[in-house]
Automatic annotation (TrEMBL):
It comes from Lactobacillus equicursoris. It comes from the Bacteria. The lineage of its organism: Bacteria, Bacillati, Bacillota, Bacilli, Lactobacillales. This is Uncharacterized protein.
Amino acid sequence: MNDDLSMIYDILNEIALYLKDDTDNPVSMSLVLHNYGIHDGVAKGKVILAAAKVLNSAENTADLTLMDFQRAFNAEVSNKFSIEPGEGQDVLYILKWLSLHQMPDLYPIVMNLAD
């Protein structure tokens, strides 16, 4: 990454920090993807499609687990998402961001997963 891009990246991280970016207050899904080493320009769209596939394939959305989304994101987007039990904060962050900004029907499911 050249110096200009590195500085822009630092600026974005500082803004996210100022906005108290965390799982309860997700600021930027793209920044989180980048921080996980996912630099695919269409990764965000892939995440949205993967989450939609999980939702549409579920017989009962109340039975969905974080692992269901972790596996889908690994299969459809990148293998950088942890599939270890108890290590799904990255996926939970993304799901919360999606539920607040792209897929409002996902919100009650995410709140159930966060408990």
